[in-house]
Design brief:
The complex is a heterotetramer, with 2 copies of chain A and 2 copies of chain B.
Chain A lengths: L1 H6 L13 H26 L15 H7 L7 E3 L5 H7 L3 H8 L33 H14 L6 E6 L6 H13 L3 E7 L2 E2 L2 E2 L9 H6 L5 E5 L3 H16 L5 E6 L17 H8 L3 H11 L5 H24 L24
Chain B lengths: L2 E3 H15 L3 E5 L16 H9 E3 L4 H12 L4 E6 L9 H8 L2 H4 L9 E6 L14 H5 L5 E3 L4 H13 L4 E6 L6 E3 L13 E4 L4 E5 L2 H15 L4 E5 L2 E3 L3 H11 L2 E8 L4 H12 L9 E5 L8 H7 L3 H12 L4
Parallel strand pairs in B: 2-3, 2-4, 4-5, 5-7, 6-7, 10-11, 10-13, 13-14
Antiparallel strand pairs in B: 1-8, 6-12, 9-11
Helix pairs in contact in B: 1-7, 3-4, 8-12, 9-10
Classes of the chains: A alpha/beta, B alpha/beta.
The complex binds thiamine diphosphate (2 copies) and magnesium ion (2 copies).
Chain lengths: 344, 328, 344, 328
């Protein structure tokens, strides 16, 4: 698929029935926000202002945005080390994300988590995760909780192609159909797990076919097309809300950059990269919106300006926020005890 | 007061908490009736609460412990059972990297009211993969609470508390204790984490013992009493939080201390107790601090070899005796 | 399948082309040896002479015997907690097995391992295993070793239906096709994992179908028919020896007794049990051999007498063997050090 | 003598052993060129030895560590790499129940010449799941050997030995040490397991330090020297076997001891060292035995908070100073 897909000129198609102009513009804006958030973060990281690991998801924005467009309040997501896009799509505020990357008290995790652990429990974002596949069993439990609490909420579990080699992937799929929980597995197959091409993770593997052996509906979709992703997830979410159990979606996408900032990614093929770059989901949706009369050039410019402003404000917020006292490293280990075990 | 078994005490705790709070539910392998779990603690609960809340799982420790984590952070209070502590090896990521750290990593957002019940220890010729005592692993991980009750009374009170706490608890039972009996009030009660219990007062030597070895220490104290040696037995009950004050107070009183547990000596929890005593009660100790722990070998199969590696009253009594008489 | 299979009268069929009378008689004798070994062990266990856990494989004998009949010297197996049949089929001597159960120096593990850990490395039996699924990654490594050492040896990995819910199952399957190692997965699906019926382990699961998503040949065979098992394994072994990678075999079988000696197994359906008992693989092969003229009644009686004698001698050997000094518990932890870390 | 980095020293060890013995091979995630592993230790090895022997694996720690066990007991000498020690949680069954116990459970039949290389420790804002120091878990499991080299010289010599030993070794590197330089002879050499190294001699206080904290202890000794306090720094190099004789001899000489490591204090390996000293050198110690270890919290992300939890020369010097001047 890689080669041909990369060379294909994407047709604009006709406007989706089930998405309003407002929703589509939200998607566009959200994808742009993710892209520019990460651009900004990269620049600040390279300038030495941000520490730790920075795994960027540039190129993949359509997957979380298409997915989260199908969710509503009360729904839950789990994410990965490459989670900026997922959590912004679900509703994280870039202000508090920058603040987290800068290690400030106003960050989502008060500077204790950093890029790989951003969470906003109030919005059902129960955590990015530094452990590949770590979120899968947790998402299973969140979905079980949706079910046991008699809600019609659902859980989305984001994970990468690399995670499909871990045992926890299998356990989560298996338990999810046994229990028929409202869980949507969204595999962001960006063709690489760190330096390893997808073909070296699983031998000639057709993921939806594998998922179907657990008896759940499964499909592979174009992860560069936010509308397609939305459609597949919306179907899965509907099934889940009706109590019809889990679904599996493989979204084929691409990591435009290296594994993390600083990775020269010499293992990636230059031509392959350029092919995929041509399929960039953001300009693609932009073209579509213009074609369908949902977006004028002025509106597009304004969205861009707003996004830039939001990011600018976010950076300023972060930089002007206080650093936690170093000794705050000792708090938040337990609810009921301090780190020595004294009751609080 | 009525006497019930450790097993019944645990079952009562589960039943009462499930009756009290409908978000409490159980997950684990073979926990539903008629099997009712490997050591029968959950027997009788699935008929009362149904198999949704006494939720049997396939053999997927990583999967169901992780499911416990996910359920715990989204409004439920799961109690998951790992059949043998040795199988916790299958779920260490979910226990040590996820359950233990979610609160901290999220800057205090997450609450993780998860109880992981499991059992360990030797004594049934279960061999190397069914008889370990791995409590030190969990006590080493910030973010986890660790309980190790030795009596039915403690088991019930601590388990009820564990279920009510908003922090993840590794709750470690012992396979030979399930049939032991002891007084447990009819009325509802809970026990706090972080309070050691002086199981017996004495003046010549302190024995700090956990789980099964508390019973052995008490027997040793009986033996030594006849010889005129007075032993104080302190049971921390929870390894974290650890009530070092009560331990230290006892050591300062008796000026001698033996620490005992079923886990292997090397890097066992006893080392931590010794290290804390060596720092806080240094000036009060008259003789080298002793550990009576399993030799650092895997649990052997054959009964007589297993017995050789286990802690009994004689090993404890012998060490205390030599300590008190100045032979050490 | 369960119901109909249980009620079916097994046809005798025609003699297999690829198995000599001698080989068939070996199978018959070996199955009987396993059955009677376990009968004897059970009696001795219930008499209090044997400690620990005793997981009996009665009813399943055709699977290991059919499998190991297709192996040769230099091949390797891994087994499970229910491993007596597997290790006897591969060549373990019942003498030293009894000695192990009795905890004697002459036991395979010098009394340190017991029923769940019997191993004979000299015969490629690299261990039963107390951890469900524990043997799967180990078998993968043994097969990799066959490959890397440029041998044409193969490895067989025995495991139960319950093990298929563990993450390690997935990881081993996935790596095995990626590396195309000479590994044969033999799942002894006895319809229960402890007290849990197979349907509760995996939702409507077709195991061979799942295995095929890893791109290995897979089939489900009648595990009550030693000849069928042999045939399937022989094909898989041939492929493996030719360097054509792993295969997957699900052998449908049944655990005649409880999970371990002492389990009343009230969770098992009485009718189901009786149905499967009618399909007992040992009398079945006996009937076939007689029909085909490979076995006379006298020969059958003689085989039985020999087996009984062997077991009798085994028990005597065990009981008359010395117990290791209790302090032997401290040895065999390391090759180079004693348990204190002193060099030896 | 030439100076090379810790990274280069490790790479040389791997290269030399792979050249010497064709049964030695490597397995792990992203270890082949051009990526050459997360900390570039294996960079350049796949071009020389091919990707069969520098075998890249999917993200399947349980699978490939288990494959290492299976290969090790059937004639190969695998060296597997777990990218971060935190990910060992995914493979604890294979490490602790299988690799560690196969020899024992089989009554001495199995040899398990498996090396598990991994790295731990804080210092790069890697946060709670990428910066732990879990050596105590492994040292607690009978059947495993545990090495933690602090210098390029030790790293090379110990890794070569680890590969040649027939017992499973958990070989723990440190992410900040890879770029440190030190003298390493051109000629082939190996170092024995179980021999501590006195990295600096002194008379007022012993500091027992491991891995990264050895460097910090040496700096602390420099600081204190200027104040007239003479510090002896002992590096056990291998946690098991542990050369308690060398440690005890030092403590008996100086009569004061501080134990330091990057792992959290509670149930860290330092507790074991303290417990052994408290038993064997009891009469020789003048002041409470001190531990300078990380506070028992997960590794935080923000640099200044991480630094707050890390061991540096000032924390060690301060404690030694107060110990020597009788303030503790
Ligand atoms: C259990 C575990 N093993 C290894 C790693 C190191 N690691 C971090 S990201 C990564 C690659 C993940 O690939 P994939 O799942 O495809 O996600 P992507 O990075 O492509 O988004 C690896 C190997 C880890 N974090 N956790
Ligand atoms: C990791 C692990 N989890 C749980 C157990 C407890 N246990 C032992 S055997 C068993 C059932 C195994 O079922 P299956 O794989 O089908 O094998 P069978 O007993 O049917 O031969 C269980 C749950 C174990 N030994 N290891
Ligand atoms: Mg990927
Ligand atoms: Mg089974």
């Amino acid at each position: 698929m890689t080669q041909t897909a990369a060379e294909r000129e994407e047709p604009v198609g006709s406007p989706p029935q089930d998405l309003s102009g407002e929703q589509l513009r939200w998607m566009y804006r959200r994808m742009l926000l993710i892209r520019e958030f990460e651009n900004t973060a990269q620049i600040r990281f390279e300038a030495g202002e941000i520490a730790g690991f920075l795994h960027l998801s540039q190129g993949q924005e359509a997957v979380p945005v298409g997915t989260c467009a199908a969710l509503r309040e009360g729904d839950t997501i789990t994410s990965t080390h490459r989670g900026h896009g997922d959590v912004i799509a679900k509703g994280c505020d870039v202000k508090r994300m920058f603040a987290e990357l800068y290690g400030r008290t106003t960050g989502y995790c008060k500077g204790k988590g950093g890029s790989m652990h951003i969470a906003d429990f109030s919005q059902g974002i129960i955590g990015a995760n530094g452990i590949v596949s770590g979120g899968l069993p947790i998402a299973l439990g969140a979905a079980l909780s949706c079910q046991m609490r008699n809600t019609d909420h659902v859980t989305v579990c984001f994970f990468g192609d690399g995670a499909t080699a871990e045992g926890g992937f299998h356990e989560a799929l298996n338990l999810s159909t046994l229990w028929q929980v409202p869980l949507i597995f969204v595999c962001q197959n960006n063709l690489y797990g760190l330096s390893q091409p997808w073909e070296e993770t699983a031998f000639q593997c057709d993921l939806p076919e594998r998922a179907r052996t657990y008896h759940m509906p499964a499909e592979c979709v174009d992860g560069m097309d936010v509308i397609t992703v939305y459609g597949a997830v919306a179907r899965a979410v509907n099934r889940a809300r009706r109590g019809e159990g889990p679904s599996f979606i493989e979204a084929k996408t691409y990591r435009f950059l290296g594994h993390y900032v600083g990775d020269p990614a010499t293992y990636m093929d230059q031509e392959e990269r350029e092919g995929w770059r041509k399929r960039d989901p953001i300009p693609r949706l932009g073209r579509q919106l213009r074609e369908w009369g949902y977006l004028t050039d002025e509106e597009a410019a304004q969205i861009r300006a707003e996004v830039e402003e939001e990011l600018q404000a976010g950076i300023e917020f972060a930089k002007s926020s206080p650093k936690p006292p170093a000794a705050d490293a000792l708090s938040d280990v337990y609810v009921h005890f301090d780190h020595h075990g004294e009751p609080r | 007061m009525r006497e019930i078994t450790y097993r019944e005490a645990l079952r009562e705790a589960l039943r009462e908490e499930m009756e009290r709070d409908e978000t409490v539910f159980l997950m684990g392998e073979d926990i539903a009736d008629p099997f009712g779990s490997a050591y029968k603690v959950t027997l009788g609960l699935s008929p009362q609460f149904g198999t949704e809340r006494v939720r049997q799982t396939p053999i997927s420790e990583q999967g169901f412990v992780g499911a416990g984590v996910g359920a715990a952070v989204t409004g439920m209070r799961p109690v998951v059972e790992i059949m043998y502590i040795d199988f916790a090896t299958m779920a260490m990521d979910q226990i040590a990297n996820q359950a233990a750290k979610l609160r901290y990593m999220s800057g205090g957002q997450a609450k993780v009211p998860l109880v992981i019940r499991t059992q360990g220890g030797p004594g049934r010729s279960s061999a190397a993969q069914h008889a370990q005592s791995l409590e030190a692993w969990f006590a080493h991980i910030p973010g986890l609470l660790v309980a190790m009750p030795s009596t039915p009374y403690d088991a019930k009170g601590l388990l009820k508390t564990a279920i009510r706490l908003d922090d993840p608890v590794v709750f470690i039972e012992q396979k030979l204790l399930y049939n032991t009996e002891g007084p447990v009030p009819e009325e509802e009660y809970t026990l706090p984490f972080g309070e050691a219990d002086v199981k017996r007062e004495g003046s010549d030597c302190t024995v700090v013992a956990t789980s099964m070895t508390v019973l052995k220490a008490l027997k040793a104290a009986d033996i030594l009493e006849r010889e005129g040696i007075s032993v104080e037995v302190v049971d921390p009950r929870t390894l974290f939080p650890l009530d070092i004050e009560t331990i230290t107070a006892s050591v300062c009183k008796t000026s001698r201390v033996v620490v005992t547990h079923e886990a292997v000596e090397r890097c066992g929890f006893g080392a931590e107790i010794v290290a804390q005593i060596a720092q806080t009660a240094f000036g009060y100790i008259d003789a080298p601090i002793q550990r009576v722990c399993a030799p650092s070998v895997p649990p052997p199969f054959a009964q007589h070899m297993e017995a050789f590696t286990m802690i009994d009253e004689h090993k404890i009594a012998d060490r205390v005796r030599r300590l008190v008489t100045g032979e050490l």
